[in-house]
Write a structure and sequence with these properties.
Helix content: under 10%
GO molecular function, one term: metal ion binding
Family: Belongs to the Gfa family.
Protein name: CENP-V/GFA domain-containing protein
Number of domains: 1
Domain CENP-V/GFA: 3-122
Strand order of the largest sheet: 6-7-8-9-4-3-10
Keywords: Lyase, Metal-binding, Zinc
Distance between the termini: 40 Å
Shape: globular
Largest sheet: 7 strands, mixed
Number of strands: 10
Length: 137
Amino acid sequence: MKIDGGCLCGYITYEAEVNPEKVAVCHCTDCQTHSGTAFGVVVGITDNQFQLRTGELKTYQKIADSGTPRALAFCPECGTRIYARTENDDSKFFGLRVGTVTQRMELVPTVQVWCRSAQTWLGDLSSIPKVEKQPQL
């Protein structure tokens, strides 16, 4: 599936070829911290499936719990996270952040990973009231 996307401010744009069956909810503590929320949603791709169209990404290197160096790539202007990439293997695996994809509604997760780190309150979100847009505070 051909996709495109970019950052919040428009400085970064990209195109990629993805397999919609490779979408995951990641509950690792790095995704929780980096996203500022309970989990990340990524689609797995490799280096040759991603093409940066505009802008230049900034990266931060983080050593994952597995000991693997990871490059966390983001927009230097608005801070939008674009991907996390494995640094020390030949696959150059990317976890492309689904929230940055224009066609994100078509990329439905097929698996959850790092569930041992999942927030316990995620078990049943259906019991939490839903509001269509931002409510009056």
